[in-house]
What we know:
By secondary structure, the chain is an alpha/beta fold. The protein folds into 2 domains: 3-67, no CATH class; 105-265, Ribonuclease H-like superfamily/Ribonuclease H (Nucleotidyltransferase, domain 5). Helices cover 42% and strands 14% of the residues. The chain has 9 helices and 5 strands, in the order H-H-H-H-E-E-E-H-E-H-E-H-H-H. A 5-stranded mixed β-sheet has the order 3-2-1-4-5, sandwiched between helices. Strand 1 and strand 2 form a beta hairpin. 28% of the residues are buried. The mean pLDDT is 89.
Amino acid sequence: xxxxxxxxxxxxxxxxxxxxxxxxxxxxxxxxxxxxxxxxxxxxxxxxxxxxxxxxxxxxxxxxxxxxxxxxxxxxxxxxxxxxxxxxxxxxxxxxxxxxxxxxxxxxxxxxxxxxxxxxxxxxxxxxxxxxxxxxxxxxxxxxxxxxxxxxxxxxxxxxxxxxxxxxxxxxxxxxxxxxxxxxxxxxxxxxxxxxxxxxxxxxxxxxxxxxxxxxxxxxxxxxxxxxxxxxxxxxxxxxxxxxxxxxxxxxxxxxxxxxxxxxxx
Length: 266
């Protein structure tokens, strides 16, 4: 190769397109690592648009491929429907997840969190279907009625519960216990139940737990209860509620959408 050709390409100034792509790559990398590698091209694209930068989704995908960046991928659990009706309880929600206001419909569930030292631990969570926010949660070494009641009590302290509000759960023994039913009746909350073996009836909270496992729990291992508790706090309060955008609420975070709705309702 002639020396003149070598130095021509070496000293060749960057084009306007190359300069823009370099800036976009820097922006994409920042958003990607700020989300702890949880965001894929779709969410990164929305975050860039929110900053007033015009770019297509395909272009973001192309640049992420050049940077070798991709969202954490874990095989999803795909539940199977069951036609077996073991317990008959009223399903008021009936997969109608639409809402008009905060504290119209809550959903609750328990999920398992593994630790090396303390074995299985349990996370009890409540989500407001309108804001997609986890409004209350309890992490415990035992899956007891007291655990789910504590989660309810915390939610009541933070929000005014309107008479007739719906709380939807599965048919777990904690949720069908006498103590739990009495608490709901005292607070004039209508209890709705999933059909046996039909997790789609409680899709909102199931989706949250799937994201929690895929984006946090399955990416690491916890030594003990305390370490897991700290990690869950960081994910729920530091990331999910305040920083994780949701397509169903116009790519806002639950915290942003809740604040917006409170202003609207004031």
